Design the sequence.
């Protein structure tokens, strides 16, 4: 288990981190609030250490694992930033084609956790591709603080077009069997929902982790199938679910939704104290079975 989860952090600290990570409060406000919790056995170092990512904790599949081969590939994005770049991981001994999975990062670029998720996907026998929305700005800068600022500075619509282009690139890749899955986290969860509504004819299986729905003008284009993962304590994202579920039911979309009790937004991310091993492993096992069902 992540050592950080051994520290009992008050729930409000996780809520404040979520506000900070998604731009609702600035760093000064976040740190000021944390300072108010310091004491009674908790120090600022403990609090920030538990909440901020430590990517040394996150590697489940080594970049030099003998079962996989990873490269960086570029693709055209005419309606986005003209060129995109991503991390392509395939089973090393793949002969012929396989199902392909687009792995979509959070709101901070292609960090080590998301690259590790791509490797996990490849270990399951799929070809994984994890684009970096920050490519035209030089790519993920090596820390999430700068990555968030960089992604916020970019035009959202063009980033979305980059991921649509990445999905098309991957679905038509020479290693693809034509079956496309997508899995994304936070912002990537939104992108997963957006792709399921924007290019439903190409997406064979979408798995948003704690992501908001596609925009109102396109949400009714969703076809599915979808597997949607929520954290029970994630009030910000969860408030969008009842209306989204009503639309999915009305449209007759094939979907499954799971709400994991007692966990926070980001529970799958094993680099922070939000990580919950039991919930993360259950959600991931369900995700792999879902891809096995729809991408074979």
Sequence:
């Amino acid at each position: 288990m992540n050592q950080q989860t051994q520290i009992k952090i008050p729930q409000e600290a996780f809520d404040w981190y979520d506000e900070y990570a998604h731009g609702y409060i600035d760093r000064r406000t976040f740190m000021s609030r944390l300072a108010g919790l310091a004491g009674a056995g908790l120090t600022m170092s403990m609090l920030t250490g538990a909440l901020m990512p430590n990517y040394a904790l996150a590697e489940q599949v080594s970049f030099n694992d003998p079962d996989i081969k990873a490269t960086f590939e570029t693709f055209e994005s005419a309606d986005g930033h003209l060129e995109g770049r991503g991390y392509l991981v395939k089973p090393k001994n793949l002969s012929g084609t396989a199902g392909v999975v687009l792995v979509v990062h959070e709101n901070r670029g292609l960090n080590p956790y998301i690259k590790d998720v791509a490797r996990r996907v490849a270990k399951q026998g799929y070809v994984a591709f994890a684009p970096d929305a920050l490519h035209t700005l030089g790519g993920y800068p090596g820390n999430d603080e700068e990555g968030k600022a960089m992604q916020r500075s970019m035009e959202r619509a063009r980033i979305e077009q980059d991921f649509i282009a990445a999905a098309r690139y991957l679905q038509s890749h020479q290693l693809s069997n034509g079956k496309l899955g997508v899995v994304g986290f936070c912002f990537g969860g939104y992108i997963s929902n957006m792709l399921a509504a924007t290019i439903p004819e190409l997406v064979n299986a979408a798995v948003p982790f704690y992501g908001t729905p596609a925009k109102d003008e396109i949400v009714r284009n969703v076809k599915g199938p979808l597997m949607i993962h929520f954290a029970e304590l994630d009030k910000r994202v969860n408030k969008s679910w009842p209306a989204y579920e009503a639309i999915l039911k009305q449209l007759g979309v094939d979907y499954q939704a799971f709400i994991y009790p007692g966990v926070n937004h980001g529970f799958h991310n094993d680099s922070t104290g939000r990580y919950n091993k039991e919930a993360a492993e259950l959600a991931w096992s369900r995700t792999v079975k879902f891809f096995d069902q729809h991408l074979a």
Observations:
- The first helix runs from residue 11 to 21.
